[in-house]
Amino acid sequence: MSSRRKKTTPAGAAVLPSLALLLHALRGEVIALELESGALVRGTLVESDAAMNILVERVEFRDPQGVTSRAAMMQIRARQVYFFSLPTDWDVDAELALQVRQHVTGAAEGL
């Protein structure tokens, strides 16, 4: 049995892993990522999925050699992300609770 299985609420609705919910809650926020390659990415989070694949816009990309470039949009696979940082003024507890409520309510309405 895999430890990465989705948790299930009493109503039977699947709840995404908490890190995926946290990332999903950051939509519209400027985030910074470090990739496994050592590259740095900074941009506005457009979307993330349950696997934590990320789509960012207005991207500033700095490669491991320090060369900076810009892009309108960039898609990043979850396995490429070493870590991401949260905005300093962001209330993690409140946003995560809101995401869980929205996800559970949306799943229950689909029953």
Automatic annotation (TrEMBL):
One of its GO terms (cellular component) is nuclear body. This is Small nuclear ribonucleoprotein Sm D3. The lineage of its organism: Eukaryota, Rhodophyta, Bangiophyceae, Porphyridiales, Porphyridiaceae. Residues 1-32 form the signal peptide. One of its GO terms (molecular function) is histone pre-mRNA DCP binding. GO terms for biological process: mRNA 3'-end processing by stem-loop binding and cleavage. SUPFAM superfamilies: Sm-like ribonucleoproteins (SSF50182). The keyword Ribonucleoprotein applies. Keywords: Ribonucleoprotein, Signal. The keyword Ribonucleoprotein applies. Residues 22-85 form the Sm domain.
